[in-house]
Every structure is written in structure tokens, then in C-alpha cells.
Amino acid sequence: MFGSYFPSWIFYFIFSIIITLLLRVLFIKIGFDNLIGYKLLFYISLMLILAFLSSFLFF
């Protein structure tokens, strides 16, 4: 499945969504989520940063 027909960016995209959701739960618990002004933009940016960073580190 992870051969030449499975693009690796899909794995990193799914990985970054899961990590972003876990970080959101953590941010809500510690109260950091209330300080964020543009939540949608923040979490989309965080997801993209995690996707690119994990792709560069693990690929």
C-alpha cells in the first residue's frame, strides 16, 4: 500500500490532522484556546506547518 502508487503526502496530511486535533484539546484544557483570535486560520496554519514539517523530517 505504501509503494509507488500511494502518495506519501496523504499520510502526512492525515497525521497532521490527528496531531492538530490533539493539540486543540490540549490548548482548550490549558486555556490557550481562548487567547487565539482567528481560530480557523490558526488551526489550518498549524495543520499545514505540521504536515510540511513531518514531511521534511520523515520523508
**What is the N-to-C order of secondary-structure elements (H for helix, E for strand)?**
HH
Counted beta strands: 0
Sheet-strand content, in percent, reads under 5%
Anisotropy-based shape: elongated
Structure in words:
With 59 residues, this protein is mainly α. It is 73% helix and 0% strand. The chain is built from 2 helices and no strands. Helix 1 crosses helix 2 (39-58). The longest helix is centred in the N-terminal third of the chain and has 23 residues, at 8-30. The two termini are 16 Å apart. The model has no long low-confidence stretch (mean pLDDT 88).
Topology summary:
Layout: H1 8-30, H2 39-58
List keywords for this structure.
59 residues; 2 helices; single chain; elongated; mainly alpha; 73% helix
Summed up:
73% of the residues lie in helices and 0% in strands.
